[in-house]
Amino acid sequence: MKKIISCIITCCLICGLTACSSQEEKSPVLTVETEPPVFTEESESPAPSASEETEPSKEDVQTDIPKILIAYFSWADNTVVMDEEASVESVLKHYESVGDTGEYVDAISSASVVQPGNVEAMANWIQEYVGGDVFSITVSEPYPSIYDDCLDRVADEKADNARPELVNHVENMEDYDVIFLGFPNWWYTAPMAIFSFIEEYDLSGKTVVPFCSHGTGGLAGSVRDITKALPDSTEVLEPLGVYRGDIHTAQQTVNEWLDSIGFAEAAAEDTSNAESEVKTMRMTVDGQEVLVTLNDTPLANALYEMLPLELSFEDFNGTEKIAHLPEGQGLSTDGATAGHDPAVGDLCLYAPWGNLCIFYQDFRYSDELYSIGHIESGIEILSGIENDFTVTLKKENRSQNEGLEAVPPSKPIPKTDNSWQFDTPEKHNMDPQVFEALHSALPDSDILSVVTVKDGVIIDEYYARGYDENSLFEIHSASKSVTSALIGIAIEEGYIGGVDDLLSDYLPQVAMMTDGKQNLTLRHLLTHTSGIEWYEWGGGYSNWSEFRSAENWVDYILDQDMVAQPGAVFNYSTGNTHLLSAVLQTATGMTQEEYCREKLFDPIGIDEETYWITDPQGVGDGGNGLVISPRDAAKFGQLFLQGGLWNDRQLVPAKWVEESTSVQNAGPGGTGQYGFQWWIQPYTTGQYDTYITPYPSARYNTYFAFGYGGQFIYVVPKLDLVAVFTSGGHSSYGPRPYFTDYILNAYMG
Fold this sequence. Notes:
Layout: H1 2-9, E1 68-73, H2 84-97, H3 105-111, H4 118-130, E2 133-137, H5 147-160, E3 178-184, H6 192-200, E4 207-214, H7 222-229, E5 235-236, E6 240-243, H8 251-260, E7 277-285, E8 288-294, H9 298-306, E9 309-316, E10 320-324, E11 346-350, E12 355-359, E13 369-377, H10 379-383, E14 389-399, H11 432-441, E15 447-454, E16 457-463, E17 473-474, H12 479-492, H13 508-511, H14 522-526, H15 544-548, H16 553-559, H17 574-588, H18 592-604, E18 611-612, E19 626-628, H19 630-641, E20 645-646, E21 649-650, H20 654-660, E22 673-674, E23 679-684, E24 699-707, E25 711-716, E26 721-727, H21 736-743
Parallel strand pairs: 1-2, 1-3, 3-4, 4-5, 4-6
Antiparallel strand pairs: 7-8, 7-14, 8-13, 9-10, 9-14, 10-12, 11-12, 11-13, 15-16, 15-26, 17-19, 18-19, 20-21, 22-23, 23-24, 24-25, 25-26
Helix pairs in contact: 1-5, 2-3, 4-8, 12-17
């Protein structure tokens, strides 16, 4: 059983390493060790004597500077390495078993048992940047140095909710204002020793800043569990998680994270009167000025040397303004630090397209963004421009001592009330006569309801056969798009590491398989490219009834043969989505309905009668089983139209909205291309010639949730339009002509 449990957490146990610790209680005095002692079997790490302590500097006694403690737990400080070669080999063997054989695997594997290690490196970088004292959390009973044996003990401690005894202590915890708390991700949370540390002290009123070294499990539930263990008065700042393979280039990432949460570089706090140049740009937009401060990096300097420039910007996804540099004047990212978590006002380079982007809404982290600078004043000017615009960029030098203008608040996004507002079509440039024609045509169809939303208000509704606005419909596979949104939220919250996590990180039985399923990632499930044999699309034989009548749906799916390499072939499968639902339940510790209610339905006002069907084990039927009213389904479409934002709350990460509704593969053809559980297809007004209007033909990019029997949630960003159809027949495509030839055709241009 332990071996099975260990397979669950193999990708999560990536440990930071520090100096090896004594098995006797250490001195409570905290010191910063610039050269950690090497553990040997014969000797212990000596506690520093009082004579070795340095005299406090003037900065140490200033009351307005927060006192910082950097406490962390690492495997290396909590093990005794008897056979270094065997210990390293045990880690290498694990990495090979999960396919992690990249360029840096040897270095990172060795770092798991040989100093210096990941968490120790992060702790030292933090200390180097902000100052403070470094403290290694050490248990009385060392962990095994062989990987699988360590996993077994970790699993047992997690199952027992144990609190390992600690041998070293901070006697003067009351002196510290800020506690940086570092750890590896073990068993989808922090090591139990972290909770021993938290519960030993009164951390009321202090600030705790988590940082983590992890494998494919990401932060998982660690920050959530730490926050729950802390007093209510403790402030927990934004955490940082660094993937094991990225540690070798992560120091700049750590520094940028520290800057983003308000910790200035200690070395940069120069009390002298010396002035240094700050590179800034002045953007001129229709006679208005926007001031941009550039980073002190080669990438930012290269842009600065290209000035002056005249660039054309356009809006992208309701979150950023983008512009391409003149032909032949691209920016090179060689040597630049990749990865950025953009906030309002950030100027970045998006490497795949080579374009500049200015964010006027917070966005999620991307490895392909490179930070260049930040807008210090005038962001509201850019965010308020709806159409394409041209700017002139010019150099403006200033010294650091000159200061910068105050940053005005960004333009607020209008709030959308949870209850729908209603208006007439003509007030939103839609022809009411076309909707009258639509109502006349619909009785000849199997369509039971239609809700059309334009500019955030309902402009038309239709109900048939006794159904009304309160009626609930099972929207079948349109449910998949909601499940996708929940996956994006779970990634943002740290329950899931990312779309490239292995399925086996969350479903332990998959790790034991040898037919290729052990290589499945969440991306393969999201894009229906798992390679699992499945017959659901295109008519003919179907295993649908067999699947739905199985005693255990998850086991049934995993028992199917592999007929293609993961990622190679699109094959539509509700089985793929059901596995995502199982991942959600495992990762969050909540049912899909509970998590959906908390994160989506309650915040946007979805009726309490809405529910998810479940399988016999209680796993949400995420691929088929959402039962919801048309008006509430329209709210979900409106949420995505607004980039995941509702009442000024970013419920679904904006980046996830963009990625999941962008083409990930070609799909099956005909129905459309495919994103992350969303369909993408351009539609032309009147393309089925069932109804003719006098308005010019136009083509609109559309993404949509689509379910069996004619269940649709259409989203048309260019028209600010959402249309929901529910149907009661067997024709899945029946609503399409009514959408294109009536609703799209009603737009008067």
